[in-house]
Write a structure and sequence with these properties.
Layout: H1 2-35, H2 37-41, H3 62-90, H4 98-127, H5 134-169, H6 171-176, H7 185-231
Helix pairs in contact: 3-4, 3-5, 4-5, 4-7, 5-7
Length: about 230
């Protein structure tokens, strides 16, 4: 009887010691996880823990950026066509300032539609990005704005070059151009002034569009972060 009692006590002591060791091991793992950094990245092999590998993600997710760009270009195309249709219907062709009125209204509406398109495209790019946060959203919106601006500038330049080449290739237009006509200093000054004004307006509009794109991307990325937080 005495031997059995000693064996039971020995087994109980062994079980208690095993429980204490397990508790210390669990507390040690939790403490390393709370500390983070290098301690959380490398666990001891004796504890049976695999080494954690840090995962890095690119801040720029190009699939989201291209999706936002395509949506922005589609919105720009539709809104520009709508503005042109309204401008052509708003003024009488018999009025002396018909061309300038239509051109002014179309230009203003094209600028407004570009701001709307960049905002929506930046929002979509930030909303669907892999990394959430205001900084990433601003980056996504900036890249959508840059690509949209370059594409529209290229499209406008190509269209103007095509129209000019077709006009010069027309024999009637070529015959109507005076040969050896002199250009006065006043004409050169007016052309330079109008070109400078157009360049300044382009810079101002581009900066405003960039700010709008950043705002759209930031809002989209922030909304995604809030949704992920709610799911967790």
């Amino acid at each position: 009887m005495e031997e059995r009692r000693r064996e039971r006590e020995h087994e109980r002591e062994h079980d208690r010691e095993h429980e204490r060791m397990e508790r210390r091991r669990e507390e040690g793992v939790e403490d390393v996880g709370r500390k983070g950094g290098a301690g959380s990245m490398a666990m001891t092999h004796g504890r049976g823990m695999a080494a954690a590998v840090p995962v890095t993600r690119d801040l720029a997710r190009w699939s989201s950026i291209w999706a936002g760009l395509l949506v922005a270009l589609a919105i720009q195309l539709v809104l520009s066509a709508l503005g042109l249709a309204i401008a052509l219907r708003s003024f009488s062709p018999a009025s002396p300032n018909y061309g300038s009125n239509v051109g002014s209204m179309t230009g203003i509406w094209s600028a407004v539609s570009f701001l709307i398109a960049v905002f929506v495209g930046g929002y979509l790019a930030g909303r669907s990005a892999a990394v959430s946060g205001a900084r990433n959203g601003a980056l996504q919106g900036t890249l959508v704005w840059a690509l949209a601006l370059l594409f529209i500038a290229w499209l406008g330049t190509s269209g103007a070059a095509g129209l000019l080449s077709n006009a010069l290739a027309n024999p009637n237009v070529s015959a109507a151009i005076p040969r050896g006509a002199g250009v006065t200093a006043g004409q050169v000054g007016r052309v330079a002034a109008s070109t400078s004004s157009a360049a300044w307006w382009f810079v101002f509009g581009s900066v405003i569009a960039w700010i709008v794109g950043v705002i759209g991307g930031t809002i989209g990325a922030t909304a995604r972060r809030e949704e992920v937080a709610e799911e967790v």
